[in-house]
Amino acid sequence: MNAHKTIELPTALLRDSAQGSTWHSQIPDDKAMLRAAVELTRDIAVARPGIYWPDMIASALLGYAALAAAILVDNTAAAVLLGVVSSLALYRALLFIHELTHMHKDALPGFRFGWNLLVGIPMLIPSFMYEGVHTQHHARTRYGTIEDPEYLPLALMKPWSLPVFALTAILLPPALLIRSAILVPLGLLIPPLRTLVWERASALAINPQYRRRKPEGDFARMVFWQELGCSAWAIGILAASFAWGWRPLAIALGVVALTALLNQVRTLVAHLWENDGEAMTVTAQYLDSVNVPPPGFFAAMWAPVGLRYHALHHLLPSMPYHSLAEAHRRLMGHLAPGSTYGRASYSGLAPLLARLARSTMTAGRRR
After folding, report:
1. What separation in angstroms does the CA of 178 have from each of 87, 91, 235?
2. What is the rounded average pLDDT of the residues 332-349?
3. How far is the first Cα of the chain from the last one, in angstroms, to the nearest whole number?
């Protein structure tokens, strides 16, 4: 396995981050890698409905079945185990939102509607929260800059920022419930609140300076119906809890909190987070991103739906998740040992978290 824990570059390419720059902005594009990524994968670039639909539906149904069992069972240990199973299954189902953002509208007819109906609205995370947002993260001139909604220079921040970043995820479930059940309906009566909720609480973003633009056209109509569905569902959940007790809701919130925490930890290792705001080449973006290819077994659990190949995804954003493993195999076989492509591969979650923690401690000493 080609596992790399550091990226070694000539000293001449290194620049003092305290002066407002990093080595990323000086990495030229590896044109041979970029060309190979496109040419070697043309025949596997089509999304296959026979994989997407069964995977998404089975994940969602397993998640809901395990959640129902966790609520109904009397044994605490069994309830916890079922809650973990539910969280992992719903995590996989939720991450299809990432595929939706890159999928052509005609690629899988009905899949967006089906996902929102089965997963997005019940989980209060409709697809509009990611659509139109995540693609900005892939924009050539935005990645790693202040205009990137999904980037923070975590490796250059204080060490305590990492646990705070991860643990804030457990606040997401109650925040989503409050948003859909209270803030969105109130926004119909209070326009400034509606604007605030849209700009600051309607996108799956980690950049606190990101402000979302007002939706327009067909997208605005889609947002309306998804918001209506989420608000009706959230209000119904609260009404049912008042009538029949809060235990089911508390367990459901705990399961979703675990899902959110798992996703936040995955986010910590999706990139190296070493850019401090300058625009980067595509190759630099690739090297600031992470692949965790096999044989690691657990990566398929904490980075499902193709996200273990996150660096490769930044080379081929529209490649369907079920083709990424084959694309990786082809590129590794085609490109020479020690090529740029192999330098984005890492061995697992723990080494990546350790690397990030060391980076924050080093950055802290520089200040």
Report:
1. 21, 21, 9
2. 93
3. 37
What is the DSSP code (8-state) at residue 246?
Answer: S
- Beta strands per DSSP E along 47-175: none
- Binned at pLDDT 50, 70 and 90, residue 366 comes out as low
Q: What is the distance between the alpha carbons of residues 86 and 177, in angstroms, rounded to a whole number? A: 19
Question: Residue type at 32?
Answer: A
Confidence of residue 338 (pLDDT cuts 50, 70, 90): confident
Judge whether 258 and 314 are in contact, CB under 8 Å: no
- Choice among 156-165, 278-287, 324-333, 357-366 with the minimum mean pLDDT: 357-366
The string of pLDDT tens digits covering residues 66-118 is 999 999 999 999 999 999 999 999 999 999 999 999 988 788 999 999 999 99
Say if residue 345's pLDDT is above 90.
yes
Kindly report the number of other CB atoms within 10 A of residue 146's CB atom. 10
User: Strand, helix or coil at 271?
Assistant: strand
Rg (CA), the chain: 21
> What is the distance, to the nearest Å, from the Cα of residue 156 to the centroid of all Cα atoms in its chain?
21
Q: Is 291 helix (H, G, I), strand (E, B) or coil?
A: strand
Q: Which pTM was predicted?
A: 0.91
Of 269, 338, 351, 335, whose CA–CA distance to 307 is shortest?
Answer: 269
Residue closest to 7 by CA, chosen among 342, 314, 343: 343
Q: How far apart are CA 22 and CA 80, in angstroms?
A: 45
Q: Please give the structure tokens belonging to residue 242.
A: 């008042």
Query: Is 282:339 a contact under the CB 8 Å cutoff?
Result: no
SS3 165: helix
Q: What CA–CA distance (Å, rounded) separates 55 from 304?
A: 11
* 44: DSSP letter: G
Q: Could you identify the residue written with the tokens 């007819």?
A: 109
Helix (H) or strand (E) holding 39: helix 31-39
Q: What is the DSSP letter of 215?
A: P
- pLDDT over 60 at 313, yes or no: yes
Paired strand residues for 332: none
Question: Could you tell me which of 161, 35, 29, 52 has the C-alpha nearest to residue 114?
Answer: 52
Looking at residue 74, the DSSP 8-state letter turns out to be: -
